[in-house]
Amino acid sequence: MLNPTEISIFKYLKEPMNISDLAELLSLHHSTVSKAISSLESEGFVLKEKKGNHVFVRRSDSLHAQSLVDILNEFPMLPLSKLLTPSSLHVISVLEPPRSITEVSEITGLDRSTVSAAISRLAKYGIVIKANSKFLLSSRQTLFENFVDNYFKYKTNMNLRAVSQNGMLIWQRGPEFLFKAENLNTDFGSDLKNKIHPTAISIFPNYGFDVITDMKYYFFRKKSPCEEEFFIHTILIDPYSPIYNSYALALVPRLGSKNLLKYAIYYDIEAHVRNLLEYIDKKEKRSDFVLPWNEYQELLESLV
């Protein structure tokens, strides 16, 4: 994510500087510094401003840029280019609650060796600790948690704006997010297009269900969601809505319940899904987020 040159440039930008002065200060070619600044700008860490014949660069006011400043001030000697890699950031984003390497691998889509290497690097500097055979962020390292949270929120907003003018965020964790939109833009690249997957009630016609809605639902991630995630994503549209919970439950006979709790744990809604599955088993309304059983049956009939 951030290479040593980019981190060095960011460190020196306590005040706005022009590219030529930065290149001279760092003893680097102008083109090398210019390329690094373009990368920092695309990631929201810096802004460029033209004054006369010179282009000045300054740190941006974004939350993740400020979080990086906080880390640099607190830990000036840490090898951040080795710690703030894309895989490390993705791993950090899912370590609440504590997870095993296998769980982190399955949630993030990263292979076990990549996850293990990232955790080893982070553990070496006390950012991640191990407890009861699972890994979690050290409570003393909240600066890194804040940085990861702010960075991925920024990236999510940028990606969402790139793919849809009317897109609305529903759920986000790390680089992945669930959103709804009436339509998608037509001018974004294949790198983004390959990460957009229909999900939730947008895939209901594949199961013979007919849901009338103007909105389409998508999941943004490199890996396509599995069927169990269609169930989870339908709940996430509005976990407190009896209608969307009922829509999700309509999938249970088609999917089975074997792996639903596994994915509910991954999405941190285990208790909610247990309650929904108990509702199916008992055929009795015991909470405000499900329909009376007879109304649920009527809704199922309306879908086919």
From TrEMBL:
Gene3D superfamilies: Winged helix-like DNA-binding domain superfamily/Winged helix DNA-binding domain (1.10.10.10). This is HTH arsR-type domain-containing protein. Residues 1-80 form the HTH arsR-type domain. The lineage of its organism: Archaea, Methanobacteriati, Methanobacteriota, Stenosarchaea group, Methanomicrobia. It comes from the Archaea. One of its GO terms (biological process) is regulation of DNA-templated transcription. Keywords: DNA-binding, Transcription, Transcription regulation. Pfam families: MarR.
